[in-house]
Structure formats: C-alpha cells, structure tokens
C-alpha cells in the first residue's frame, strides 16, 4: 500500500474528448520542507528515477523565463509494454511561490517547433496537471509538507479506446510519484539542491535510456510499486462521491502560519448605513442575474465569502469575513477587439459616464486579457462620494507607487475543476506588484487597467483558465490593503461573481481613437 489518498473528480465535462481521463489527484504528507520538495520536482536528471516510476527521460525544449519552460518528457509506463507503444509529452510548465511559502507547479500540453512527434512514440496530451506543495506544522521536530499531485491526461492511441483500464492504470502510476517523494526523503540523509534541468541542445540526438537500464536503476533505489489492484482498492476507498472532493484531513490542512480566529464573530462591515443608489439607470453588455446555475452573467458576490485583515491584525494576524462592500457594483462590460482596450471609462454612455452625470464617483477595473483577440472585462463600482481622509480616498488620489503597493485582489473559483482551482488559488494578490497596472484619474472616476499579459505567471494561469472559462464560476474581490491600526479593518471596494462566461458574447466597443 502507498499510504496515499486518491481522489477522482466526478464532474462530467463536454469540452474534452471521451478519451481524456477524469481529473485525479494523490495526496500525501512528506517529511521535508516545501523548498526541498519543489527543487526535486523541478529536476529532470537521474535523481528523478529514484522517486518517479513513470519517468524515463526529460529535457528542456525552451527556457521561456524564470517561471516558465517548455519540456519534453518520455513516460515509463508498465502496462503491457510489449504491445503498447511508449508515450511522450511536450508541455509547458510554470510555477509560482505563494506568500505562505507554498508552491504551485502547473503543466499543460503545448506544441513546439523544436519538439515534434518522434518515431516510435505516441504523443500524449496533458489537459492540465501539476503539484501543490503546502507547509504543515512540524511534528516531533520534523518538517512536514502536504503534496498534492493532480493530473488529467489523454494518453491517445488504440489502448485508450479498447482497454478502459489502460488509462486509469497509467494515471495511477504517475500519481504514485507522491509516495516516491515520501520514500526518497525518508531514505536521504544529505539533502542538497539537485542540478538544474539539462538544456536540450538537439532533440534528435537526445540519449534515450533503455528500459533495461531504467529498470535496473529503479529496482536499486526505488521500492517496488504496488500492483494496480492495490492502488485501485485504495482509490475506491478514498474517492469522495461529490463533484468537488477537496476535503483534506484536519491534521494535513494545518498551515504553518498562525490562523487565530476571534471568538467574537465581528466582520469588517460594522459601519454606519449608507444611502442606497438607484441602480436602474446603469447597464453593461454582460447581463446581471442573481439566480443560481445561470450562465454568461454576473452577480454581486457576498463579501463574507472573503476574509480580510481584522482590526487587530497587527497584533494577532487575525482575519474576519469582509462583510458589506464600500461601493456598489452597477454594471459589467465584456469587450473584445484586435488590440488592447485602454481607458474604457471615457466611452460615451458607459456606467462611469452615467454615474458622473449624476454626481457619483466610480472606481473602474478593466481586466485586460491578451491574445490574437484581446478581451476586457470591465467592472464599474459606484459610490455617492469618497470619505475625505479614508484609505480609499488616499488610494484614489495617491501616486502610482502608493497604488501599486496597496491594490489587492482576492480570487476564488467556487465552481470549476480541481486543477483550475489550484491554479487560480485564493491567496490575496497585490495587483500592482504582480502585473502592470495603469491608473487613469478622471474628474469623477478612477480607472485601473490591469494588463494580465504583462506577467508570465499570470498569463500562464490565464492560458489554463481561458480554455475552460465556460465551465467556471469565478469570484473576485477588490480592496486597498490596510497596513496600520488606523487603516484597519480592511474593507472591500467591491466583489463580483462571473458565471460560465462565453467568449462569443463579448462585443467590440465603440472607443474614441485616442482612448485605445
């Protein structure tokens, strides 16, 4: 037995071929630091044979930047190798480190001119996959880390169509690498950073290791992997029969940082009531619908879905439900064009212009999605007036350095595949530090143009999300980070939920030539 817990996602999707497996993940605890595990996972040298029994050979096709690389990977699968052709992969791998010390490593297949099909191999396709490496509290003086390995793959070829057990068996063999990591660290006394991944000078001349040599190496350093029946039995006992089986045992879910909860259930919304704004005069091309299970629409997300810094955060690092928003979300626009769309709040008839005519103030967030077709999702938040001296007023009228150091986004994916939810995460992000933000201060509005394409990491996550956007429900909260006791507790500028967005529903906006 591997001691892993195996989960299978039971949500049916219609955008993938029938040959593609359901998403599966393995969860285990490894006695090592996040950094040590991350370094080992990133390596593709001889060390990998010692913990990954599905690995035969790997190398770099292209080093895009410090966070992104294109890799070639030959799989070592043990399912009737005499009759089944070997599989290889060409995929993009990108990673990020979160503020809590955890790491996320993501995979997705991608074609590359220097990594074409190889004779004698079937090119498998990773729909999405990766590792989530999260710190746990030490136990008996030993470091502990939770490792999740997620994978959704289409192995292609005749074996997938004719033998249903082929793909599941091979996928479980790949997920068993979590047990390999645990064994590797339990048997390793001296730990050092493994060598960097070898660069691929010439794919045609890359040495292909013989199966005999691979098996010799594995048998000498790696424990015999359990049989498929054993793994499958463990899987059947561990699979949770709901659509989003993400419940992890309490002892494995403890975070390293203190997460003290206040005994008194107070939220950041304990403020004086504000006069309501008539929302009937505002409109955007993405329609508003408060019903559940609706598609291609937006609604206001409950502020209590997000946790923000409490009044006492400076002393005990506690967080509380955010509560009521400072501003009202009045409209959402969903645009597309052949070029990036900047300063959309200047567009005649938009919600920001309507609010200005009524003496109201708007904060506009323009999330710019790059590509062959550029998309912009624009959120219009409105208030009657800014409170003089408030943190929000200082943000609106401050300089770009102050704005970049304070503008925060809290994302969440309440509905979507495991892998997308792991990719997006729910960790607050300082937008101005992560991507390029352009601030446009109008007479009665502040527009923030957020260029998601300016960050390789953000763009990589976006590449995973945009392909399955119609299957997702996404929550986003915008706020100004509070750093001092005078500024606390934090308050949301506003929050939005967008559901099952269709790319085809975006429209081309009418912009003045000098505004785009």
From TrEMBL:
An example Gene Ontology molecular-function term: lipid binding
Protein's recorded name: START domain-containing protein
InterPro entries the UniProt entry points to: EDR2-like (IPR045096), EDR2_C (IPR009769), START-like_dom_sf (IPR023393), START_lipid-bd_dom (IPR002913)
SUPFAM superfamilies per UniProt: Bet v1-like (SSF55961)
Species in which this protein is naturally found: Populus alba x Populus x berolinensis
Record domain START: where: 22-157
